[in-house]
Amino acid sequence: MARVEEGFAPSARGRRPVLVAEFGRALGWRLIAWSPVIAVLIAWEVFARSGAVSPFMLPPLSRVFERIASDAASGELVIAVALTLWRALAGFLIAAVVGVALGLAMARVRLVYWFFDPIVSIGFPVPKIAFLPIIVLWLGFYDVSKITMIAFNAIFPVVTATVVGVYGVEKEIIWSARNVGTNERAMLWEILLPAALPQIFTGLQVALPIAIIVGIVTEMAMGGYGVGGSMQTASRMADSLGVFAGIIVTAVVGYILVKLMSVLRRRLLVWHQEAMEPTTA
Amino acid sequence: MAVNGAQIVIDRLSHVYRPPHGRPVLAVDDVSLAVSHREFIALLGPSGCGKSTLLYLIGGFLPTETGTITVDSRPIAGPGPDRGIVFQHFALFPWKTVRANVMYGLKRSGLPRAEQEKRAQAFIDLVGLCGFEDSFPSQLSGGMKQRTAIARTLAIDPDILLMDEPFGALDAQTRSLMQSELLSIWQRSPKTVIFVTHDVQEAVFLAQRVAVMSARPGRIKALVDVNIDRGDPHLFRSKPFVDKVDEIWELVRAEAIKAQQGKER
Amino acid sequence: MSEPRARALPALASALWRYVPVVLLLALWQAASDFGWVSTAVLPPLLSVLSSGYDLITTAEFWEHTAASLYRGSVGLLLSIVIGGALGIGMAWWRPVNYLLSPIVELFYPLPKSALIPVTALWLGFGDTSKILLIFLGCMLPVTIGAFNGARGSEQTLVWSARSLGASRLQTLRDVVVPSAMPELLNGIRTALALSFILLVSSELIVARKGLGSMIGFLGDGGNYDAMFAVVLAVAMLGFFADRIYQVMMQRALRWRE
Questions:
Q1: ipTM of the predicted assembly exceeds 0.85
Q2: C244 to A115: CB separation less than 8 angstroms, yes or no
């Protein structure tokens, strides 16, 4: 659909209105995509102010926003979010590194697979949060136990995805590489990992929200600072604004991180055919 | 157009296909056709010409844009058991056994259950699936699935049988066997059959009349009577058959080329 | 018919072989205490954990807590299945329902359901109802999405076949759309099952005085680590076997698939 007749160097004067129109159109589409969310938020506000429920049960959205703003101004919000994020991301990174390493080992060495497969398979449906008191017993009440718990939860999807990803690498690719004399180390770094990367990245994308939520739950269980801790404190003190503020902050932080992962995926996997397809994100 | 005594009368029918994204497309354009009782008529045309759409309109599955369809002088109001349909990809209920599929239409017949089972069994035997009553569709071959679909539709004894390229998903050998079986079933208990196909030989073999449709938007380009002696054991090589196929193919060829070009654009 | 049984034996053997590493780990656990590799304060010997567990089973208290947990979990899950399933199918079948409800579904999709723990505790306190509400709200989403996608995916030709065989619109909904939705719906329920365990244990650890989660908590606080480990293992096994049993039931229900 190229309009060749426009010439190769359209004048600057002609370009500006086109750019503005393009931007406006992109913004328009964004608005339409978000309109259901906006509709629900408006419905919240209206319903909360209607008097059908007490402001304690469902505070109006506008007052929740005020609360978030004041927490942001006082610095409390930043501290809480930073703390939670630090723990979640630390746990996530550990899960990512150890998980990929373990997954690779499982995919390449039969003995390792045999040993860890039942553990991974059992681990999935088990509510791993039940192990929190044990981890606290072993590692104390501070960040170490929280981060360990997070890593323990987040590692499962990473391992599974890595195994599936490496298994899924086409045999022909491996044989071609062997044919030209690739040694084991190069095979790993230059062939297997890149080929399995889409699947591995998907596992990481599943693990990140898990890391966030486990972080928040451990904070709720153990108290203290952080988004989860603040929410639990607010709940105990019947501070419903605080509780709802926490829900919104959690949702927004989670959404931003998930979006960042999508963008990262597109950048990293630029060579993969998935990235070539139009995204709806 | 001799409309008296016709069972199905289609008068100046049009249908516009409106996809959720994209522009509306005129699928069927001003089609008029009269089908007599117990007539076997084929709708023949290139891919995308609207022949299946026309069939679905007669079946009552799609809304008409303009024009009317009447059956026995009454306009149709949605799908109904008077017009049974058989689809290309069988459309069997995969969670039901063969017997349960065939019995599905009988549940509303008011017959006692034992009667329903007997009737269903009769049709299962008719299509040669005796012994497979308790199999699931996933365990059957393509030909067997299609036989189940035909038995299911015949079991409710519709006046009209609508068939949408029913043998298109089968391999050539099975297809040819099924064509002969369909013909013999029809000869034994004649019904009105409207048979959609893109295969000229199939149309000439089965139908008494062939409606040749143009490339999209679909119009009826020609109506050709087929008077051949189907008792001839060397039918496919006989002169009347070959001549008739050539005659109809000439009519279709230009449309097929048009349809092909339409796709490439 | 001896053939299926002959096939079952090697299948059973290979299933057992698969879990041998777990047995090895358990042996390792016991060895760690026997050989003094780890202090028994930190890791009670497997045998004493098992014997504590056995003692627990004989107490009424244990069963009260178990009953409380099972009650909350199953009521919440059942409600979420029935209402979530109906909602999902309703959204797929009637467009106005879809317009009304899908923004809400989309909004709740990225929200971590555990974030609702403080708010349900705020509304309903420390008892059963707050947990039931939490599990109901949290587990509804995977069920609704599974039902919706499954119903959406029902083939047009199946719907048309049913109609032409005389079924009314509602009968078609019941006879075609609901069964078509089953594979995805049952998968959604499997997710909801695992999620219900997570939400149940989390909320009981944080905001409860009764239930297995809270039992773990106060056993730990009281220094009774043998029993604490025993209950943790019991909860883990409960979650594991619930999933496995559900899988078997799901396979049976979907045995018509190839």
A1: yes
A2: no
